[in-house]
Amino acid sequence: DADVNYLLGVSTNTEVTLQGQKDNIERQIIEQALTENNMNISRTAKALGISRNTLYLHIRKLGIQVKKQLG
User: What is the pTM of this model?
Assistant: First the structure.
């Protein structure tokens, strides 16, 4: 399915796209920052040097799940 391939960063001929690569790197950075900040959006945004609104936009765009860690 072309839509799934686009979301995964793979074109129809299985070449990795630049946008897919950028999204994967961005996802990793945001997920790591969220983990380091116990899924706290305000602290994560501050650590990344972006606004909370911008962080929320990226979280939605990249399909990142934000679940509060216990303990």
Answer: 0.73
